[in-house]
Task: structure prediction
Amino acid sequence: MIETTVNFLNALLWGKLLVYGLVGAGLYFTIRLAFIQITHFKHSGEIMLKSRQGESKGGLSSFQVFCTSMAARVGAGNMAGVAVAIGAAGPGAVFWMWLIAMLGMATAMVESTLAQVYKVRDQDGQYRGGPSYYMEKGLGQRWMGILFSVFLIIAFGLVFNAVQANTITGAMTQVFGFDPMYVGIAIVVLSAFVIMGGLRKVAKVSEVVVPVMAIAYILIAFVVVAMNIEKLPDVFMLVIRSAFGLQEVVAGGVAYTIAQAMQAGIARGLFSNEAGMGSAANVAASASPNPNHPASQGFVQMMGVFVDTIVICTATAAIILLAGDMGTSNDGIKLTIDALSQHVGTWGGGFIALAILLFCFTSIIANYSYAETNVIFLSGNSKKALPIFRVCVLGMVMFGAVAKISLVWNLADVSMGLMATVNIIALLLLSGLAIRVINDYRQQLKSGKTPTFDASKFPELANLEGDIWTSKTVAEEIRAQQAAHDSRS
Result:
């Protein structure tokens, strides 16, 4: 009964609503922002590389925020999810992953900018924000924020963490023969150690682990590509032709259609890069107001989508597709392990298992941080409910370690789809303000200034209670940062 209901909701959300909603929103923001993901791509990279400074008592540095959001993004979706999409719908799914990522960069820009505009301080002085906050403060619809928070807590705090744990145990069982029960216990203990320290501890762990694991994985993919460089043009054309039905692709006795490729590519692409889902916006709001404009964090998150899908997911796709016909499999991580082992030998399985352990563990702790912000939103900025919630999160991690993989993935798709639906509606309703804030940044940048936010330019923000950008403390902080920048210049 549960599985039937989950499958019905998935067919409704991913078969119709979100395919049009996500692509449509991405196209709309791309056009309204004049293809900002292309015209300001270099600037996004520059901000991200220079963002290590800025951590303060009340917030994280932009680099810590980038690494935390990447910790959540880079996980099961990049390794098992890509394999599931290719196994279920053929090579054409990779193209639709690329497309949703390029469009999603503009969507990520908008949602992260809004998260910064409407952020608040919690009782400990930590910056908090995200879709639930801009729904309440920007739209005046707390009920909508509550609905989003509930979906996010279910998705990221509970279901997605079960997915990540499931992927870790799958890899450890296949490669090393470990008992899933013992693997689950180990994951729970390690996760508890980090999440009990809250958002700041999650950010510090992510800042160290994420760059190392991402670079190592990309390097091994480059090695595989170099070993098979003569096959690369044919594989690329196979992806393009099968994405548009220009060539019937048959693997393992199954023929794939355009609709299958599109649905699988968009679903797995969104699961991986989260653009439009509203998840990364929760940690984007936690960055200190340095640089001194809400849109600056939007550029950082835009680069996060690119690195996640265009770089890391493509690395997985290259490893799998260059291995030739691997047949079909619902066990995504097995497909990835088998493909890399075919390229480099048996040690490839061990490498994937280690990568999965790091990728998915950091996803668990970062997913928790997203949910933590929404638990605090529901409780009126109080942290009293967090101990109980942390126990629930750890319980779901243990459940995921021993659960049936197909049901876990399907539950993840449903919860993600409901989240994305609510968030897309809010983004479209608030898009006018977001675009004006982003254009304000671009105009200052074009005139040679260091962009600085002046909330008085935006009438919608005049009556915000406790608004960060108009508060005396933050205004003084921004002026001090601007003075320091000017003196260095």
Remarks:
- The beta strands are 120-121, 127-128, 250-251, 254-255.
- The CA atoms of residues 136 and 142 lie 4 Å apart.
